[in-house]
Write a structure and sequence with these properties.
alpha/beta, OB fold (Dihydrolipoamide Acetyltransferase, E2P), Rossmann fold, 6-stranded parallel β-sheet, 23 helices, 21 strands, 18% strand, globular, binds adenosine-5'-diphosphate, binds magnesium ion
Length: 685
């Protein structure tokens, strides 16, 4: 593409944008309605403004200005006579300004260094030229890739996209179901026609959105259906029951009584482990519902019947926590267990590897270290994956590959409504822990908006003074167009001011693993009072002394994710508090969404609301986490779409089981794309 040199190509590649097809699948993150007009008098900092007026008073200073070589300044004056500062840096000398005709200025309003407001590097449209689009897409792009350039890339991709090859649903079914073709749907979302209803477009609720979601879900369901056929045929280790075995003794010796839900799940798992069919079960349970207990019990169940169990967790800390807890409550059961993480090295590691290979250690806890090539297990009968949405599908596949007959238990706290889980994971059996252990104080959640966040910091101060600990969450990386949000470093600095004397640590995804573990350990053991971090703290860690969590820029997260985050506090005796702080420019709708969390402490309620408002994308884990490579699932507002897609897939497979027909070409390509992006159900099922 013209305009894309090696540097921009690299930046785009880092976001997974390599081919024209990738560009097509990268839908605008939002839209700006250029049919709207914002009076200058009513502007606020942070909003994206569309201003009609005339440019005047243009000056260009060609000497150094801070880190810039030149600065051009002008005013835009609107029909009401109000004016606003417009600034450009380093404009090329050939840039021309239409100063004697009406223009449209589009960009983000910022504070001017000399006071008042300004707009930097806006887009300028000449109204008389008739070149103004009705609706302007805004993409999430890496720094250095202009919106306009990306628009041109997409336009080229649309021109070259073959008409029927880019949709998965065969034309015949598509016509019957009254669905837009994929190419037409993509065109409508990248280049919205002038008569598009803006609200539906902004909400992801147009026919084009629905068609894309349906198309993708169809491919996904085809992959599931084919996988199901294969996994049904596979034999699993049959783990014999022992009447008075270690698993039964473990349950009897617990310091508390298992909940009715835990018992129900244990019975489900027990039956399946005993059978000769391979178990492929997903255990859904809200944060704190006691999933670990099921994993421990199942591990003992494997051990007592002469098989090995491997329990994999996404972080070293979590694996270590499981290992220690297991030793504490099941150490006396008579079966050896080991911990295998990147930190276990040297002679100790060699010893564990040898014992695992010989089958001398029946139970092993670990991280990704478990799926390194050096690890061999003599007789893997059970593979448990905790916080499974944090793993890529290849990771799961590799763990399961350690034993051809391994029964698989996937555990997740992602609050997926039951109906959705059943539709989405038709290749898995689903167990649900729908009951919390008794005696939990609910977490009190408050929604605030910047700058009215004093209450949250006061609460942190009080808790730290009382010897408790606090989390504070900030988004680290910002897309260029959103610049100015708080990074973890900025947050920590700010916290240092409002919490004098507090010991503050920082943690984010770009730190090395060892460093993260060290910070987390310091926080857990009380050498730090406050942890300023990105959402990497979301996963399963238990620090009972943590009583407050403050999430800044909270409107950026899905409700399900916020629910997981607040589950980090209130795990000890003391009640937990959660403050969700929305940015100053967050809209009323965003605040209303956050209020859902203040109203309900149930993961299931949150999930329903999240699904209604944002589709299942957040519930399924993000593309980045490698959970599911679905791009358009976020547009599913109604789980019925998933079932419908599954029915269509079944219908088509009955007609063309091997997908050999010419009409299946699009479906074949779509499945291949899912598989290439790391989604390989064939291996996990
Ligand atoms: P999660 O489902 O989020 O992984 P955990 O397994 O970590 O939850 O359990 C959370 C806490 O609840 C742990 O401290 C665990 O010991 C405790 N717990 C689990 N089951 C029960 C129960 N039946 N009664 C009381 N406490 C329980
Ligand atoms: Mg857990």
């Amino acid at each position: 593409m013209r305009g894309v040199g090696p540097k921009r190509a690299d930046a785009l590649r880092e976001r997974g944008l390599v081919t024209l097809g990738d560009a097509l699948a990268h839908l605008p993150r939002r839209y700006l309605d250029l049919r709207r007009r914002d009076p200058i008098a009513g502007l606020r900092e942070g909003i994206d403004a569309v201003i009609e007026g005339r440019l005047e008073g243009l000056t260009i200073r060609a000497r150094r200005y801070g880190r810039f070589r030149s600065v051009s300044r002008a005013w835009i004056r609107d029909a009401a006579g109000a004016r606003l500062r417009v600034v450009w840096f380093n404009l090329p000398s050939y840039a021309e300004f239409p100063t004697d005709e009406p223009v449209l200025i589009v960009g983000r309003i910022a504070a001017a260094p000399e006071g008042g407001l300004q707009i930097v590097h806006p887009e300028v449209y000449r109204l008389a030229a008739g070149e103004t689009p009705a609706i302007r897409p805004i993409y999430a792009l890496p720094a250095g890739v202009p919106q306009r350039l990306f628009g041109e890339i997409v336009a080229a991709a649309l021109r070259r996209a073959p008409d029927d090859r880019i949709g998965a649903i065969p034309a015949e079914l598509r016509a019957r179901e009254n669905l837009l073709g994929a190419r037409a749907a993509l065109a409508r979302l990248h280049q919205p026609p002038a008569d598009t209803e803006f609200a539906a477009l902004a909400d992801g609720a147009t026919d084009a959105h629905r068609a894309l979601a349906m198309d993708e879900m169809f491919a996904f369901q085809l992959a599931l259906a084919r996988d199901r056929v294969r996994s049904r045929a596979r034999a699993g280790a049959a783990l014999e029951r022992k009447a008075d075995g270690a698993a039964a003794r473990f349950l009897a010796a617990l310091p508390f009584r298992p909940t009715a839900a835990q018992i129900k799940v244990i019975l489900e798992v027990d039956t399946e482990l005993a059978s000769a069919a391979q178990m492929n079960r997903l255990l859904l349970g809200d944060v704190g519902s006691g999933k670990t207990l099921i994993a421990f019990w199942a591990a003992l169940r494997a051990a007592e019947s002469g098989w090995q169990a491997a329990i994999m967790a996404p972080t070293e800390l979590l694996a270590e926590q499981h290992f220690r807890n297991f030793q504490r409550i099941a150490g006396g059961c008579g079966y050896l267990s080991a911990l295998l993480t990147a930190s276990v090295a040297g002679a100790e590691r060699a010893r564990i590897l040898r014992a695992l290979e010989r089958g001398e250690i029946p139970i092993v806890f670990g991280t990704h270290a478990l799926i390194q090539r050096s690890v061999r297990l003599a007789r893997l009968g059970l593979a448990v994956i905790d916080e499974q949405h944090r793993f890529g599908v290849f990771d799961r596949a590799r763990l399961v590959a350690l034993g051809a007959q391994a029964n698989v238990l996937l555990m997740t706290a992602t609050p997926i409504p039951r109906s959705l889980a059943l539709a989405l994971f038709r290749n898995l059996d689903v167990s649900i822990l729908d009951e919390m252990p008794p005696g939990r104080a609910p977490i009190v959640t408050r929604v605030l908006r910047e700058p009215e966040s004093g209450e949250a910091y006061a609460a942190m101060r009080a808790e730290v003074a009382a010897g408790h600990r606090a989390y504070c969450v900030a988004p680290l990386t910002e897309d260029d167009e959103d610049g100015g949000g708080a990074s973890v470093a900025a947050l920590a600095k700010n916290l240092g001011r409002v919490l004098p004397g507090a010991r503050i640590g920082t943690m984010h995804g770009r730190m090395r693993a060892a460093e993260k573990e060290r910070v987390m350990r310091d926080f857990r053991d009380g050498r730090l009072d406050v942890l300023a971090a990105t959402t990497i703290i979301e996963v399963g860690i238990d620090v009972p002394e943590a009583t407050v969590i403050v999430v800044t820029a909270a409107e950026r997260y899905g409700l399900a994710q916020l629910h997981q985050l607040r589950g980090r506090v209130g795990r000890g005796g003391a009640p937990g508090r959660c403050f969700l702080i929305a940015s100053a420019n967050a809209g009323g709708q965003a605040l209303a969404r956050l209020e859902t969390l203040a109203r309900s402490s149930s993961g299931a309620d949150v999930a329903h609301e999240d699904l209604r408002l944002r589709g299942p994308g957040d519930l399924l884990g993000s593309r980045q986490s490698g959970a599911l490579a679905l791009s358009f699932a976020a547009f599913i507002r109604d789980p019925a779409i998933i079932s419908r897609a599954a029915d269509l897939a079944a219908e088509w497979l009955a007609r063309d089981p091997k997908l050999e027909l010419e009409a299946s070409a699009g479906a074949r390509a779509a499945i291949r794309k899912l598989l290439n992006s790391g989604f390989s159900l064939g291996d996990i099922g």
